[in-house]
């Protein structure tokens, strides 16, 4: 996508209107959330909450390390 996005006044705020093609590529629609993430190249918009992804990975790591305890808990 090489087309620039124009910042517009929306009520008393400023915002961007994203083209349908970009929304489809991101897999989002009205009411969905996008998260701004700082990267070395600038800011990236993503539909995935990076904080939630980090917590999820921490939990997966915990469950791998405590596999036997997880099996015991699953029996109950």
Kindly describe this structure.
With 76 residues, the protein is α+β, with helices and mostly antiparallel strands. It has one domain. It is built from three helices and four strands. The strands form two sheets. It has a two-stranded antiparallel sheet. A two-stranded antiparallel ribbon has the order 3-4. It is elongated. The chain starts with 6 loop residues before the first strand and ends with a helix.
What's the story with the biggest beta sheet? Answer: 2 strands, antiparallel
Average pLDDT confidence is 88
Distance between the termini: 52 Å
Elements, N to C (H/E): EEHEEHH
Helix content: 40-55%
Summing up helix and strand content along with how strands pair, one would put the structural category as alpha+beta
Work out the helix count. 3
Strand order of the largest sheet: 1-2
Question: What is the CA-based Rg, rounded?
Answer: 19 Å
What is the strand content? 15-25%
The beta-strand count equals 4
Q: Give the quaternary arrangement of the chains.
A: single chain
Q: Which regions contain 5 or more consecutive residues with pLDDT less than 50?
A: none
Total separate domains? 1
Overall body shape: elongated
């Amino acid at each position: 996508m090489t087309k620039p996005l124009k910042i517009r006044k929306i009520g008393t705020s400023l915002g961007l209107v994203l083209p349908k093609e970009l929304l489809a590529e991101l897999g989002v629609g009205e009411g969905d959330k996008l998260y701004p993430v700082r990267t070395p190249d600038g800011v990236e918009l993503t539909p995935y909450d990076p904080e939630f992804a980090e917590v999820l990975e921490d939990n997966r790591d915990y469950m791998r390390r405590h596999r036997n305890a997880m099996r015991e808990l699953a029996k109950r």
